[in-house]
Amino acid sequence: PSRASEVQFQVHQHPTIRMSLPLTNRIGLATASLVLLLGCLSIATINAHEEHDAHYWKHMAHSLLFEKKDYTMQKINVAKNIMVFVGAGMSQATVTAARSYNGGDNATLAFENLKWSGNARTYCVDSRVPDSACAGTAILTGIKSNFGTVATDPTVNRGDCTLDPAKKLASIAKWALEAGKAVGFATTSRVTSGSSAALYANSPDSRWENDADVSAAGCNVANVPDIAQQLIHGDIGKHFKVILGGGRKQFIPTTETDSSGGRGLRTDGKNLVREWQQSRGTGGANATYITTASELGSLDTSKIDYLLGLFDYDHLPFSADFDGQQNV
């Protein structure tokens, strides 16, 4: 139905042609319009069904890239490095507000000066309004998923404890690692939140950031590891060179407090920060854990092999709320 409503909207955007027609012709025209609309509805229904197949999204992306390549790229080179910036909730209205706040209506944001640009329609397979998990999944795996799911194909519903390994999606982080690239990420939210989690985790529910969340949903952590666990010990997360963001509470047990005095949320007794330090610091490697901006600024990166920075108990504070005294 959501696709059909979009098609109807596009059809009605055509200018109205006013003319005088005999009654019989008017009936015929009305019939033709009805057939056209029904045809659009039929196509939309087929697309809605295809959206539940992961191969649909891959095929569509490949077709679009090859179609556009002939029109836009005269010389194609292989990029040495790739940086993906994701602005959560970055709608046209938000961009307009940022532009005005930055310098007025005539101001230009840095990314608006890039040579190539475009727009993306964000939605989940089962929801017109997306959340960070399904949006992050689309951006980082190339496949749209259901609302609240992290890097799982569109047949997986939110909160489904029986996660079939065949329904897990591979992200750009996996492809980069397979290509011999070093991978890391930085975020102003929790490092286990939806947008970032799609890089390294596969979870039927973006809310399962620690083991207590999984157990509270009636699921077995052995079958569906929590997102923080996957970041530290998962097949992808364990290879990350740099992890920077917030969310210390997801990594320490309820019996311990972090540097701000906040108590951890894990009920399995694990301190994943210490486990990260122990696992990454083997074989002479330097694994450094930091919690403040001053520690970050004083690092000698030439001597660091792995870096984990958790700068807040939860999300990092918004710049508009920043009081200038916080060391984050």
Write a concise keyword list for the protein shown above.
328 residues; four-stranded parallel β-sheet; single chain
User: Over all CA atoms, what is the radius of gyration?
Assistant: 24 Å
Name the poorly predicted regions: 1-46
Query: What would the average pLDDT be, to the nearest integer?
Result: 83
What is the terminal separation in angstroms? Answer: 46 Å
CATH topology (fold) name of the domain at 168-318: Alkaline Phosphatase, subunit A
CATH class of the domain at 168-318: Alpha Beta
CATH architectural name of the domain at 168-318: 3-Layer(aba) Sandwich
Task: Choose one word for the global shape.
Answer: globular
**What name goes with the CATH superfamily of the domain at 168-318?**
Alkaline Phosphatase, subunit A
> From the helix content, strand content and strand pairing, which structural class follows?
alpha/beta
Query: Going across the major beta sheet, what is the strand order?
Result: 1-2-4-3
Tally of extended strands?
4
Q: Main sheet?
A: 4 strands, parallel
DSSP helix fraction? 25-40%
Report the β-strand fraction as a percent range: 5-15%
